[in-house]
Request: fold
Amino acid sequence: MSLPCGIRNYSYNTDTAIIRTRTQWVLFAAFLLLLFAMPLYIPRFGLDIINLIGITIIAVIGLNILVGYCGQLSIGHAGFMAVGAYTTAILTTTFGWPYFAALICSGISAGLIGLLFGMPSMRVKGFYLAITTIAAQFIIIWIINHWTDVTRGSIGMGVASASVGSFQFNSEIKQFYLITGITALCVLFATNLARGRAGRAFVAVRDNDLAAEVMGINVFSYKLLAFFLGCFFAGIAGSLFAQWRGNITAEDFTFSQSILYVGILIIGGLGTSIGPILGVGTMGLLLYWLLPVVLTPALEGMNIMPSGFSSGLGPMIFGTIMILSLVLEPRGLAHLWSLFKASYRLWPFSY
Amino acid sequence: MTQLLQYTITGLAVGMIYALIALGFALIWKSSRVANLALGQLVLISSWFTYGMLTQAKLPIWLGLIVTILFAIFLGWLIERFTLRPLIGQPALSLIAVTLGLAYFLEGLVTVIWPVSVAKLPALFPQEPVNIGTAVISQEYLWAAGVSLLLFAILSVFFKFHKMGIAMRATADDQLAIQACAVPITRIFSMSWIFACIVAAIGGVLVSSIGGITNALVETGFKSFSVVILGGMDSFLGCIIAGPIIGLCENVGAGYLTGIIGPGIKDLIPFVIIIIVMMIKPYGLFGEERIERI
Amino acid sequence: MRHYKIGAVTTVMVFVFIFSLLAGCTSPVAPAAKAIKVGFNIPFTGPAAEKGQPIGQGELDAMKYINDELGGVNGNKIEVVWYDTKYDSNQATTNAKKLLADGCAFFTAVSSKDAVASQKIANDNGFPCLVVFSSPSLTHPSEHMYAQLPDYGDDWAAFTKYYMQNIWKGNGKPKMALEIANTPTGYGVRDAARAAAADLGVEIVAVEEHTATTMSETDSLTRIQAKNPDVLFISSTPAPTSVILKNAYDLKMMPGITVGCAHASFTKALVDLAGPTVSQGVYGVFPTVSWGDDVPGMAKMTEYAKARHPEFIGNGDYITGWASSLINAEIIRQALKTSTVDVLSGGDAAAWKAAEEQGFLQVKGYDVQGLHGPVDFSNPLDKRGSKSVKIFQVQDGKIVSLTGWVDAPLIQYEKFDWFK
Reply:
């Protein structure tokens, strides 16, 4: 991190601090204040979209650990979210467990399933592994649809809102605090993971796994750990999603969702801590608010476009953004953000 | 026993169609090590274009098909020029991701130009089913199987003996080395994408004359992944052999397992095969095993 | 190189900032004018657009007709708020919450997937919802969701009833096989058959699933053929249904056994895809009349369709959408008999309660200008509006109506353990 002039680090603690100077603490406090005061200035409906964005951020953070830090391409993330969601549904509705216990169990169960489907990473990598995760997604969805005794198949399962004892999180504002709190914890955990021993091992595996093996890193166990952690986050996200939505079916976790998460991650910036947040923030607003709520009624109201136009517009825009971001700035929005910060610090000196 | 014959014949026929689409995938992998995840959408847009030519512009069949091939050539050139050329030398993840973005874009484009989501091509093949023993198969499948074999033969010969084919294989092996030999790498990528689009167009026409043009063509692309994995991602022979194997496993397996496990097992079989192959023989039956050195 | 990137990034961020400020400013604060608002949650784009577009345009055109030519309901214009769900459950949920916040008295959801996504908001808040294409889990047990039309299970029940009365000439129980899509369209039929086959007097000998992308169902049809059924019922979308019909024809099952289709696939697209020879004699169920039938509502609807959306003429879903808006107007008309515009435009729990108890539940025997079966919401056990369908048959490449309105018997899913 580039520090202002005159500030030096004399101990390991200060050297590795994320927030170091007083200015940074003030800015951070202001940001937290703005964040947690959102219900005051954002309408109810906007809060709902923010909740959905929060849940997606958790899922994409998991994907970031797997794909961004460890380099194991996974296009089956929605399937692991489904595992988490259904675990919560079954534990809370069928067995009556309290929600937060079910939350942790969903994460663990999704992580274990991820571990299972990550076994092939011992033998293959790159695209072959991606195909395995695609197969994992389809297999998980198939099992959910057909194990009707447990999952009620296509009828779906209802999930009550999260609750602690008798306090239920059943309004947007309460959901907002629940989801934002858990998201903040996940971001903190993921950032520290990336800075720690495991994170460095992941990056080593990503960059050149043979060299990593030679250096003494147990490549297979770190790959499995990446799968477990990535899918743990997916499970948490799935569990929050289940109680946010109220009822779930297998159709909520499609293959296009998985592709969407990978695309959002790439646009945001692979292998960075702020990448998932930026990517989900921008793409989520575009896809969930701008296109269907603002643009489509406006276009249809004008009645001049042929009927298929607004249908195709969304995927076309998303596809174009993805291609452009890969061609022009493969390191994503996170890199643009760090460039912006750097030039702000150095302005007017352009070097 | 008659059931077994019917399952076998159907399985072989359907498998040849998977193999046809898988050929397009193997083509691009063999020449540039790019995993083309937009394969289903390429098939879709070619089919819709054929529909546009034959039904909307009312061209005679032979002319319409030729125009479709020309369109496929143009599309392949466009894709390579604008999405892949800027990414030469980038890591594999970027290449896969750009094909994902392309997939989204093509799907949106299809919806904008042809907002009707289901259509039928005019009958290109005679409709009478053919009897093989006690089993019945409709002629479209036989035509598709025949075309697959023909394409396989042409592509294999091209890659083995023609100068351009050898250059493509060399590019897949080591891009830097081939550039040092003064071969224009961009032209090689263009050619491979053009061929792949042509194969996808042919496959699209055949598949949509069986089941009509719907968004389902995209999913057929996913089934072809299992063919490619089983056969080996860079082997045409692998495609042709693995296709019928997967088709057989699907149909015969479903035929007998449905009684035991329940309906719907047919859809699961290709994906379970993928997982099994990954554990046992990751590079497929005929694929080339990559040996990595630091 | 870095210069332009910084400039670009700064410009984009300024744009985003201004945009979000504007968006925040235009968030809905209830305006002074009091108008009754109704909401629509339509899958205008996305995988279901082929049904969402004609239904949505039908709904909007009918609302325009009601407001412009009829002057609204009792002189009160209806304000229409609609959002696109893109057939995505998340989007449908957030849209439903927005419709709630916008002050709608009630809303209409088009596809069953979107309705399931909106179910919690509707039921938890008492915000009534009219569902165009319903499914059993929405209305059994019934709270605040009301189905406009019979669902796929009802299609099966009505067809089976018609078959038993008019086509089956043997003794004892006929053997029926089901070919279902692996989606709620198909599972609805499977559940209905499981619940009611014995009561209706048929024996289900085979249930086969297929995906929407299947290229060949010869194998499942071979298994079905081995059980020698008398009748085959298919519940799927047009493309796989055409594949099934072609395979059945090749296997020489047709002509021979009776084939019936649920309404999701029984459209002109099916006849086009399968061809007149293969689809000859296939029966089908559809919940609305056909274009050109002589019913009171046909003339005005055709006029508006010709003027505004001629591409949907001949598409049964447009009729469904048009009818759905007519039902919206009828609900408001009933509600205004005992309630007031002030209450209904309040956008709060009182408004929703009034819309439901004094609007929905008072709709009895409304004829929807003849466009589909008469609508009756007054029975708390039966939340289906229209309970009847028409049976059609494909003759020489054309879909011909065989019957008047056939009632689909009510299936009480709540009685079964496997349903809960």
